Description:
Four copies of one chain form a homotetramer.
Chain A (H helix, E strand, L loop, with lengths): L1 E6 L4 H12 L3 E7 L8 H4 L16 H7 L2 E4 L6 H4 L2 H6 L1 E4 L9 H8 L6 H4 L2 E3 L2 H8 L4 E3 L3 H10 L14 E6 L14 H4 L4 E2 L7 H13 L6 E6 L6 E8 L6 H11 L6 E3 L17 E8 L4 E8 L3 H16 L16
Parallel strand pairs in A: 1-2, 1-3, 3-4, 4-6, 5-6, 7-9, 11-12
Antiparallel strand pairs in A: 7-10, 8-9, 10-13, 12-13
Helix pairs in contact in A: 1-13, 9-11
Amino acid sequence: MIRASVIGASGYVGQELIRLLHNHPEVEIGSITSTSSIGKRYDKFYGNYFGIMEKPFEEQDIEKIADESDVVFLALPHGVASHMITDEILKKTKIIDMGADYRLKDVAIYEEWYQTEHLSPELIKKSIYGLCEIKKDNIKKYNLIANPGCYTTCSILTLAPLMKEAAFDSDSIVIDAKSGITGAGRSVDVSTHYTECNESIKAYKVAAHRHTPEIEEQLGNIAGKQIRLIFTPHLTPMNRGILATCYIKMKEKMDEESIRKLYLDYYRDSEFVRILNEGNLPETRWVKGSNYCDIGLKLDKRTNTLIAIGAIDNLMKGAAGQGVQNMNILFGFNENAGLSDIPIFPV
Amino acid sequence: MIRASVIGASGYVGQELIRLLHNHPEVEIGSITSTSSIGKRYDKFYGNYFGIMEKPFEEQDIEKIADESDVVFLALPHGVASHMITDEILKKTKIIDMGADYRLKDVAIYEEWYQTEHLSPELIKKSIYGLCEIKKDNIKKYNLIANPGCYTTCSILTLAPLMKEAAFDSDSIVIDAKSGITGAGRSVDVSTHYTECNESIKAYKVAAHRHTPEIEEQLGNIAGKQIRLIFTPHLTPMNRGILATCYIKMKEKMDEESIRKLYLDYYRDSEFVRILNEGNLPETRWVKGSNYCDIGLKLDKRTNTLIAIGAIDNLMKGAAGQGVQNMNILFGFNENAGLSDIPIFPV
Amino acid sequence: MIRASVIGASGYVGQELIRLLHNHPEVEIGSITSTSSIGKRYDKFYGNYFGIMEKPFEEQDIEKIADESDVVFLALPHGVASHMITDEILKKTKIIDMGADYRLKDVAIYEEWYQTEHLSPELIKKSIYGLCEIKKDNIKKYNLIANPGCYTTCSILTLAPLMKEAAFDSDSIVIDAKSGITGAGRSVDVSTHYTECNESIKAYKVAAHRHTPEIEEQLGNIAGKQIRLIFTPHLTPMNRGILATCYIKMKEKMDEESIRKLYLDYYRDSEFVRILNEGNLPETRWVKGSNYCDIGLKLDKRTNTLIAIGAIDNLMKGAAGQGVQNMNILFGFNENAGLSDIPIFPV
Amino acid sequence: MIRASVIGASGYVGQELIRLLHNHPEVEIGSITSTSSIGKRYDKFYGNYFGIMEKPFEEQDIEKIADESDVVFLALPHGVASHMITDEILKKTKIIDMGADYRLKDVAIYEEWYQTEHLSPELIKKSIYGLCEIKKDNIKKYNLIANPGCYTTCSILTLAPLMKEAAFDSDSIVIDAKSGITGAGRSVDVSTHYTECNESIKAYKVAAHRHTPEIEEQLGNIAGKQIRLIFTPHLTPMNRGILATCYIKMKEKMDEESIRKLYLDYYRDSEFVRILNEGNLPETRWVKGSNYCDIGLKLDKRTNTLIAIGAIDNLMKGAAGQGVQNMNILFGFNENAGLSDIPIFPV
């Protein structure tokens, strides 16, 4: 039994962590914090916890929490974690950062895309990018895990198996991604007011979304060369889910069956990645509430392009689910501990 | 470890049973059937099961299934179970019928409201109405459980504590209930076509819904007298959830705090009923994916009327969740085995 | 051609007025105001106006606007209009107030329910409650129209024909109303954040909603006696629409056909009220984008109760549509000028 | 005043035509047909027409209807119109075919993608592809108009201005399109059951959708060479709207402002195309209920790719609205007659 704390537990990612940690067989929840709501009971924020968890938010005393916790999840706006984490804290506890501060290895790229100074760049190299299926063997060597972003997890998993293959033109990638509105968080804004996003779809931050360099860096690492790609996020009128429709040109002939085999091999040991059979394509409904990433493949022979489509639950594999998966790896639990429920449908 | 089978596993209630039974620590799934899809793999019907349960639908051989199962769930249209169940079958296995055939003790009322002949009326008295919170102590004595309807579960739980109290006028009850669209099942019809029910609300089967006599019979049993009430169902544009707004006139003065205490006492040992604090009212989002029934109370002093509002997840406490709860009681498991997850939000 | 201005044009009601006035054959739009956005172009607030109306918000100079306008619509929070309107202004122009300040004739009731002092109580008697179907002949005698609330319009129209009839027990009325989320306005709040109200239904302000005394006063006027009733609003996951399910006990026998005839007679000259045929019940989708109020009737013989159900588009007949209808009456236009489009479906 | 009939008036496109024609100042509605519902009143199919249009469906006697109508709209499944239309009929009346039968000039391509024999190929060259903004001057010379598909209208309008420009690589086009569920029509199917498509997004008919060759033919005509492109449709949980996110590589440098100017010039005389200002991108909500196509542009300098995004209401500019626009052109009415209402929001 380990003790896990959540710093920044009032947002959607924090709440999903609490839900998963509470259901987890190996975890007891330690401290929860929210700077703006100290002393307020958790079930006042989230009525689903009434009668289940009435714990109040504590002060955000990272030293004390690190002392008392085996693992601390940070679910904070970008720029906050890099002010908070130090070598001393990492000696006391393990940190799983749900935010962006340690995801990009190149500080300059971080500072350019996030328009903020990074306050602990020396810690970046002591951290690992926690995309479990890609980094699995190495994660347990680190005390600071940069949990990947939602769009990035879906995009990278959908394209990773192709990155070393000469048949695919890695300079031609287009990722057209669609996210549910929980991706925008719980902060109120007219753009996420019910009647402003219900019954409508739009692209946003076109050619400017911060997950772009993250996808490029990770795919580039696999490819062994720099990758430049197009990433376009869309806001879709639904609560949860990300669908990433990815296009990549082929440089050599390869049939769909061989490509599928390549994916099956690549993810042979990854229980949370499901490579769909021929003729099947992912839908966000089939992964909801679960840690799965479903991937479907279709070769467009007319244009000699592979269309690879991935689907995840953005709060699960795209955030809290992967956070728990990282924790499971760090502590040697079964990788699916607390994550084995069947996706819930229709919901 | 018991073996549970599901007859009629292709609809939404059947699927929710499969999901819960698969996650249940004490159960292995035996046979699943669907008369129209024999031999078809389950994950072809429900993509969430891909890689998880690829079992095919078997023939609906009730004798064989009864022989091989500790418990059999029936999720069938009304009128079918009463053709299927016999004393012999009940000697071999326990039956939890998700349908209406054994819910009404008065066969004449069944035949009037369902417009069909009941083929095994002699079994009705050998069955129990499986509303766990009300019938708990007696359920384990029966081999045939009539699992309550969705609207009825919500309505009865919301009103039951008042039925023996002289302060409330049981002749004045109005239940205005709102259901998500899973309540209509998975059969295709223009009325449940996406664009026909999205973004609209309507009442239906006004003064004619079959759950009316079920509510009346059960509340009447508690009250010790005949109850006549008004029940109006509405179709609400959401997947899951039932909200029952119940009105009952007061005959004597009683303050809200005393009424709340009455509910807290009545449900003292019922972990799945949550009586909300003063000022709080239930919302279907807070119970989604869970077996909870949340109840809120507001005394309208101007009109001397109690407004009691209940919320459940119609596929959980309103169907499969309660079915599993009944199974837990029948087999002496913890009542919340397989049902202890926190409600999932936002989903 | 008249000139119409809108004070408070940035909210949903203001915008719907602009849309209707822009499409209206007899109107040109004068000034539009929004105190917080002076100088900002309208199409920056509402992208549907791009290329159509790029007029900026002006200062809220009521004297100047009254001088230059034949009619001024006020779409303001309660308590603001009563500070703004004077006898002098009413000599210059006609005012249609979309807010609550002049709806209640009894100042004490206004001040109790709205918890604010009324600053121009002497103007209340110079105003008329602009529920067109009820007050039609008198509206044109007034320069100050109190446009009714959304819930109230739907509730009153659904019950009005019964109020003088001895067969109905006006002390037994229960109104269970369901509104889309535009009813909550455009101000941001966590309660109207997309993922907080999507896929969930709840009651709110139970036994405490400010439309209650408005319904009681108007129905009481028709009945010729004081009415006390129960009104329960619900927030429904859809953009537009109100459904009011109304229950009233019968004191004498009357068949459904006779009751329907009573409604047809009562609304004989009201083109915007549609009394549905036997067996049909209103759905909010059938009135969307229109000024109709659809009313369906079902007599529950078992409980001797009439269930009368009304449906409107809350932004149309429940607000801006009725505002324009009032304007049409004031200026002697066809009552349906600018309001004759068929309801739009599926939308 | 002309007389317009609608063959196949029971589906969503037929209904939207009826709505627009009924509101149109120059039109009276003649016959309406639906082979499966002869004699049934229109308002029984669509409750919004109650009290407005109670006309019954007539027999589908094309000869008689052609004799009595100035224009006949066909809203039929593919393959039906090509059985129905003859030279004789085209002498009697004008035909606006909402279906696919006359859209593709190359019969072989039609027969390959639609897997059906074309029964009147000789009429294809007597028809014109009625994408008004592109073919405007020529439309009035024809009696047979092939009204474009929904995805195609949005895609072609979004890309057309680039097709003659050497700066853009027309071999690199990717169109990632998202449609509301009305695009799937009113026929019931489990895939369009409310709870199957609510709260989920998916791609479908990937590399196989029939609108692909239509887009290719029309863009190829403008480019003056064959075009091969990737088109991926997605089903989005909303009633109306199409968003087409289009990617095209640049072969020469060109700044965004120059590209925008190119669009503004191209659509200088097209009132229904709105080229958004720098920094603005289309959202389907801003065109709902209108005939607009909104187009936004973003040059991704990192990848030297133009991202052009178009939005339409699929039932309006994507079907019935454009049908009426074609009718307006054919009869010399104002191009926006019956189509000038402001987009309705929030709805």
